[in-house]
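Priority: low. Protein: Motility protein. Input follows.
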Amino acid sequence: MEATAIAALASNNALAQVQQEASVEVLRKALDLQGESAMQLLQAIPRPPAAAVGSTAGGIVDTWA
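Result:
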């Protein structure tokens, strides 16, 4: 192999590695943003009202119906 071919191969290899690292970083940021959006959606869900003391609503399942 010629020296110029070896230098070109090394340069292309380094460029590919940089591109791969950049792609991974973009993916990480996208996943972080998606996770933050999911947390905001979960926090936006209203809490169900507390059941009244002595209430049986939702506490008994009629299995004979």
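The two ends are 83 Å apart (CA to CA). The helical segments are 3-44.
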